[in-house]
Amino acid sequence: MTGTNRLNRPPLDKDALRRKYAEERDKRLRPDGNAQYLRLTGRFAPYLHDPYTPRTERPPRTDHVTVAFVGGGFAGLVTGARLKEAGVEDVRVVEKGGDFGGTWYWNRYPGAQCDTASYVYMPLLEETGHMPTEKYAHAPEILEHCRRIGRHYGLYDDALFHTEVTALEWDAARSRWIVRTDRGDSFTASFVGMGIGPLHVPKLPGIPGIEDFAGHAFHTSRWDYAYTGGDPSGAPMDRLSGRRVAVIGTGATAVQCVPHLARACKELYVFQRTPSSVDVRDNRPTDPEWFASIATPGWQQRWLENFTANQTGELPDEDLVMDGWTDIARRLRARIAAIPQEELTPERMMEAYEECDFEKMEEIRARVDALVEDAETARGLKAWYRQLCKRPCFHDEYLQAFNLPNTHLVDTGGRGVERITSTGVVAAGAEYEVDCVIYASGFEVGTGFTRRSGYDMTGRDGVRLSERWAQGMRTLHGVHVHGFPNAFLVQPTQGANLISNIPHNLTEAARTIAVTVRHALDHGYAEVEATREAEEAWVELLRSGPGRLIGGPDCTPGYYNNEGQEPGPWDWLNTGYPYGATAYFAHMDRWRRSGTFEGLDFREGPCRVAD
Ligand code: NDP
């Protein structure tokens, strides 16, 4: 069964679908928004323990480096790589995990896999000469690729692992940053980069009684293989055969690990608040001959640009990746081509888009009926919202897992788990006794940058980033912040804001940082900072766009639409370049090539700049 069964379908009742979407959304709305979730502190702090790498002792660092980078995930790796390519040898990555990898260091749950085609998702493939073994690579290969980048660019030499930055302070007298960490380090850096990742602080649902559970429990991003047996490469979890397990959450993580748990547990209860849309995965090994034919010079950049253009609805002539992310664009292209030129208004285009979305989601719902044997379970697994309201999922075994006699969907009808007791989970009016609760409850997204980074950097004149951003994030290009010289952000917001392929945002930011640092070093500038005017102009430009939310207020709640809450001033500025991701990348390419560094002020030495 594929997701393209378009035969014998009755015509769409668009009004009925709109009504159903609104009803389902209303069931899930709750007033507490992001406040419904818990941090892993206090009783839950041990959940953050690194189960993968033993911590080794080392003396504190008190030296000086040219660039310090906070975070050893893709952001730190690609920025480190671009800096090294630009001849900046002295780059120190500081990483809280025990190795490079970021999200792929922590997320080793069974079945973990990238949902975006490896050829565009895995960065620096061309530079490192790696051919992904599958169209959608599994987590161990991606983690190994992170290590490959680290080795290839010599980033291991000076990396500090199992180290969390606790403070970044601008030393104006010496034009450098003082970096302090939880390992007692206090070193200085001429420049700092920050790539803390959008999804790295695990969260738990604030369910009453969650602290009372006496059995075993863990979050999916700290998978406890000592308890479950098995390993990240898919070895069977042989210690679960006599155990009753609850999974709380049915997002992208649960969709990938549930089939593995279903095969291993005595009983598996999957507690669902909102069903994910689960489209066809259709993974396959990479054919080396085919890969050799596409991997010509510049290939990965071409693929990146093509995927982004397709995924963001620019409707280019060609679709290289051809998958579920680009499917709506393919349909839309065909539909729009059929509209006579004189009738091609923005309203007709939006109508065509909605129709394509309805059709797509009808197919995804039909797929549930085709694959899930029990009618009641199938009913519960159907997603009633537009595809990009929630993170789309893709899997060829998730839905079928519910056909196994030991695997039970506990659909809470949008209300979520009611309570946790010392022995189990209470939901939809019944208690389910379990030995283990696995929280597939995701990561903090809608919270502030300084909360998620774990430090509040102090810039020029002692101003903290949280103060500077009290009324919302303000940057130039999503990279520079006025008042914080020689500091760079590597993340999507206020830039391309591209969510379907986060690494594309990161590789572009890395290029910008590398040329900026190179320019400063070549010309002996001790400081570089975004001017207030340039930053203001950029923020004004962002404000002229349609606003921040990826999913609109009509969407069922989730992190794509701020949990359904009205965006506050902070949220409003979590937006992207108004003309779209491709236009942003083109703008930045021109900016870098121009060599004028418009909007940046390069200075020779310590000085105060009037605000
Ligand atoms: P998500 O935030 O997507 O999912 C959390 C789940 O927990 C949701 O189903 C949520 O329900 C549920 N939940 C929260 N509170 C309760 C409650 N009180 N009772 C019952 N259920 C509850 O987290 P994931 O870890 O699944 O994914 C996070 C993101 O990480 C993804 O969106 C994706 O961007 C990325 N990811 C990427 C992957 C890839 O590329 N391969 C794989 C996995 C993740 P509700 O929907 O109602 O809020």
TrEMBL record:
<comment type="similarity">
    <text>Belongs to the FAD-binding monooxygenase family.</text>
</comment>
<keyword id="KW-0560">Oxidoreductase</keyword>
<protein>
    <submittedName>
        <fullName>Cyclohexanone monooxygenase</fullName>
    </submittedName>
</protein>
<dbReference type="InterPro" id="IPR036188">
    <property type="entry name" value="FAD/NAD-bd_sf"/>
</dbReference>
<dbReference type="InterPro" id="IPR050775">
    <property type="entry name" value="FAD-binding_Monooxygenases"/>
</dbReference>
<keyword id="KW-0274">FAD</keyword>
<keyword id="KW-0521">NADP</keyword>
<keyword id="KW-0285">Flavoprotein</keyword>
<dbReference type="GO" id="GO:0016709">
    <property type="term" value="F:oxidoreductase activity, acting on paired donors, with incorporation or reduction of molecular oxygen, NAD(P)H as one donor, and incorporation of one atom of oxygen"/>
</dbReference>
<keyword id="KW-0503">Monooxygenase</keyword>
<dbReference type="Pfam" id="PF13738">
    <property type="entry name" value="Pyr_redox_3"/>
</dbReference>
